[in-house]
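so the lab meeting is tmrw and i was supposed to have these ready like two days ago... anyway. pasting both below. for each one the top line is the aa sequence and the line under it is the structure tokens. i havent really looked at them closely yet so no promises
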Amino acid sequence: MKLKKIMAGLVASATVVSALALGASADWDVSVKDQAAPGLDISTGNWLVQVYNVGNEAENKPATDYGVDLSQITGARFTFSVVDDDFRALWDGSIGGGVVLSTNGGDLGDGGDYNWPSVQWWGVIDEELGIETMDEGQGTTVKTLGNYTYQVEANGFANPFVEEGISEVGCYQICLQQWSSMCNWQMEKCEVLDKDGNTLIEFDGLGNVTYNKFAGATEEPTEEPTEEPTEEPTEEPTEEPTTGDSSKPNTNTGAEGIAVAAAVAVLAAGAAVVSKKRK
């Protein structure tokens, strides 16, 4: 048993040395870029998806419109996991980043305060792996879902449609930044939220839409009434009309006015990272 522990330590040490030699850092799994939906952009530190865009060829961002009521967006929830590769052995909870809801163009021009505001997060608490690195004072909620999978949520972003009374923008994008860890990461899903934490639209790790509140009620199957034959013999058969009720519930997708305050937080635990504003 002691020999096995020594060997395991040597392997882990060798992995660390290799990682340092290669300059490894926190990276999204960019190997899936060729499979990604047109509205998704994956780089080493950013996983960014377009909720709406009039189209920007210079930034390689296609025209995107899922019919989402942008005035309802105030937050986002991301579920992500450590890639099962050689670097997973290095996972120690040293990770941080920012949740970004960014919009500009249209009535906003360069976007001002709405262009790339970030609410930062740091660390996780994973009892199964014995990791406790989370800073709970960042204004985000970080949950451990098990099996090297985590979830970060931030809500309370100011919405320019409500705060500024605008009617159109050039783009609305959602991003999760992550820094510091030497592991590689893959996104499982991204949920765009309203002020009550309800999901407005959901994307998988490749940027494909898996749920859209504004796409109608086709995703919620309803049970149709079944007709059971009746066998009651009568001496003089009569024709009785039958009625079938297959009514389905209506889905209310109307927009509601919302007002929120901007969330501002500072990255703790010694991490000093500057997010650059971008369009």
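ok protien two:
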Amino acid sequence: MVEGMTLDEFEQVTIDYYVNLQRIKKAETGNNAKLDFQIKVYQNKLSSLDIPSEEYEM
């Protein structure tokens, strides 16, 4: 967690970033392995915070 940030703030930043990745994925017309990897990383981060990533998928 980032120093000076509350857990609620950290969770919100993580959710926002994941949603942004989902938007990019939805607009993507081809394969993007780096994007897919980043999505998996953030799914794991959300999971570690007990936040189901499925609720934020497009």
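from a quick look at the 2nd one: Helices lie at 7-27, 33-48. The CA atoms of residues 7 and 13 lie 10 Å apart. will dig more after coffe
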